[in-house]
Design a protein that fits this description.
By secondary structure, the protein is of the alpha+beta class. The protein contains three helices and 16 strands. Strands 1, 2, 5, 6, 8, 9, 10, 11 and 15 form a nine-stranded antiparallel β-sheet that branches. A seven-stranded antiparallel β-sheet has the order 3-4-16-7-12-13-14.
């Protein structure tokens, strides 16, 4: 039986070649698109992953006062409170309350905005057995132990940037005063003299004052006992940033505002067992009941040096 073979014509060959070429180009195009799509998808996936990680890290990051201020359990002790201001409990060391030094924060007493650390003290708060005035303060430590240095040996300096935002209402209902830095001494020194607070650096103004001019008031043994009275200076205001330094050397106490010497006075008795304190210590509110009045102090860039 004879099989008929059909010989393709020229037009059929051209058609098949064109079809093959078309299919080849299409496949190349598809392969190219797939590659681009994969690359774009990989970049997009990477971006999503990075965003997710960044968001996760941000959500897990909490800023605490101790970290912002740069203090540790080797350098300072936190004197503060727990509970509501009207029923607070005072702790000479906040760790005794069960709080962690590194993560302790309380919007009523001790908190931060990421730059400043705020010390908020209410009139009528419970306080220590040794004082009738309430405080939220830091007490200096050296290598984790309570500092006790001699003002006649070496040079001892505390420098801090401070901004007082509000004064409390004092006992007379008209004035307001708080202390934001001090050198504290022993209740009685080696000579039996009651030195206690060597110098208190304070702002004096009106009750519940939140802005405007105030006086810088220097009190404590160095003025009240050695000079016979506290000293006051004009030219200060609430809500304004100041860089103060207290230096105690050669039995003499110096106070600087920036590089300007504001006050200096030599002690008239022995000068052992001193330490720095900084924060918010209300003055002239002894025995006053809680009424919502408070003082507010912001601190940053705190440092001490002993040479």
């Amino acid at each position: 039986m004879k099989t008929n073979r059909i010989t393709p014509g020229l037009s059929d060959l051209n058609f098949k070649k064109g079809k093959a070429l078309f299919l080849g180009l299409t496949m190349l195009s598809l392969l190219s698109c797939d590659k681009d799509d994969v690359e774009e998808s990989a970049v997009a996936a990477s971006a999503v992953t990075e965003t997710t990680v960044a968001d996760a890290n941000t959500s897990k990051t909490t800023t605490y006062p101790a970290t912002v201020l740069g203090i540790t359990t080797s350098t300072w002790k936190i004197n503060s409170h727990t509970g509501s201001p009207s029923k607070s409990k005072y702790w000479d060391d906040i760790r005794d309350s069960g709080a962690s030094f590194n993560t302790y924060t309380n919007s009523d007493y001790f908190y931060t905005d990421g730059t400043w650390t705020y010390f908020k003290t209410w009139r009528g708060l419970n306080t220590s057995s040794s004082s009738s005035n309430p405080r939220v303060e830091l007490r200096e430590l050296i290598s984790g132990k309570e500092a006790k240095w001699d003002g006649s040996v070496g040079t001892h300096t505390m420098t801090w940037t401070v901004k007082v935002n509000q004064l409390p209402k004092g006992e007379d209902g008209k004035t307001g005063v708080l202390c934001f830095g001090q050198v504290h001494g022993p209740e009685k020194n080696a000579k039996g003299v009651e030195v206690d607070d060597i110098i208190r650096v304070q702002f004096l103004g009106t009750a519940n004052q939140k802005s405007g001019a105030v006086k810088l008031k220097i009190s404590g043994y160095i003025t009240e006992k050695v000079l016979g009275a506290s000293k006051t200076y004009d030219g200060y205001s609430l809500g304004t940033e100041y860089r103060f330094s207290i230096k105690y050397t050669g039995s003499t106490v110096y106070l600087y505002n920036g590089t300007k010497l504001v006050f200096s006075q030599k002690m008239n008795t022995s000068t052992e067992a001193n330490y720095f304190k900084v924060g918010n210590y209300l003055q002239s509110v002894k025995g006053m009941s809680y009424d919502g009045s408070f003082g507010l102090v912001a601190v940053k860039a705190l440092s001490t040096k002993h040479t």
